[in-house]
Each structure stands twice: as C-alpha cells, then as structure tokens.
Amino acid sequence: MGEISFETAAYAKMILHAAKYPHCAVNGVLLADATKIRDGAKNQDVDIVDTVPLFHHSHYLSPMAEVALTQIESVAQANNRIIAGYYAACENFKDNTVDKCPGQKIAEKIAEHFPSAVFVVIDNRKMMQHLVTAAMKLHNFSEGKWKPIDHNNVLFHSRYVLDTVSHLLQRGVQKDLVDFDNYLDDLSQDWTNLGIEKLIASINASNTIDCKED
User: Fold this and answer.
1) What's the order of all strands across the beta sheet hosting 4-6?
2) Which one of 82, 109, 128, 175 has the largest count of C-beta atoms within 10 Å of its C-beta?
3) What's the CATH number of domain 4-209, 3.40.140.10, 3.10.560.10, 3.40.50.2300, 3.30.70.3040?
4) pTM score, whole prediction
C-alpha cells in the first residue's frame, strides 16, 4: 500500500461528524487530489484533501446514497478531485471494526472504481484523545476484503492537525457541520461545509505565524 496523507480539513470533518452524532452511526466519503492519481493503479499514494459527510440515519436508503454520490462526484470533478475512499463510525462505542460499520456497499462500490480506495473507521475510544493520537483506523481493499493499513503509511499535512481538531471540538464547531441528511431536510444548507473549511484555514494560518515567531 502506498502512503495515505490527510489535509487537516479532511480529518477534521470526519471527527466533527462523529462528534455531532455520538449516539448514531455516521458515514461519508473521502476526496483525493485527482492530479496525483494514476488511473487504474493499485497501491499508489493517495492524498486525501477533503471529506464529505453523508448520513447519520439514512445509511440503508439506496436512492439517498445515489443522489448524494452523484452530486459529490460532479462537484469533485469540477475541482480536480476524485472519490477515493469512505469513512464510518459505528453506533456502539465499543465497535471499531469494518464489519460493524454502516454502508459497506458504498465503500465497495468506490473500491470498484478506484482500486487504491481507503476505508477509514473512526475509533470511538480515541475520540477524546486528539492531543495524543489520531482517532482512526485505515484499511484498503485487497482480495475481496478490507485489510488494515500500517500506520507508518499514514501522514498528516500539518503537524498541528490534532491540536486544530481538538480546538474545533472545544469550540463546539461540530454543531455547525452539515451532512447529506441535514441537506436533504433543508436544501439551503451547505453540504460542502465551506464555512468550517475557512475556519480551519484561519487556524492553520495562525499556527504557521506562531511557528515562525518561535
């Protein structure tokens, strides 16, 4: 498996989604930089630049998933991005395995189109430990199964990512996150979560300035 790297916003949206609905299973898709992707290649490096929260109660409604994926793919292509993976958090706090996650058919469909697809399982038990370690387990699709990825192959673009996400949680930003369930209930809501992206960019800029001053 090649290296998997995450932008701060991509990791943050996954964690905020799980934190907004701690009593529910949640899921979403990962978007990669399409300019760095080799068509049809397996085991290539994947740069996850964004994530799109999907559902917290419509996991098993295929029409909803089709609508969501069609819209996401259209916006992704316009921004030189590709659907490159899937994330999920289980409803039960102790369940942190692929088998217990919702919407596995969505993940497998993504893997059919993108052989180097990544499946992220949010590790519920680490959700409160962001200053120590990332709360996720990564997998890739091999021989018909989702298999764990060595954590040495996982990178973050910023060394401040865990601090940033912890700061967002402390500020309660998770309440502002919009998933597709929210969007389908109210079409005026922004499922791209541009406002949260801008907030993260502002925090990242502040961290960079502080680093230079040190």
Assistant:
1) 145-148, 136-142, 118-122, 81-89, 26-33, 46-55, 4-6, 154-156
2) 82
3) 3.40.140.10
4) 0.92
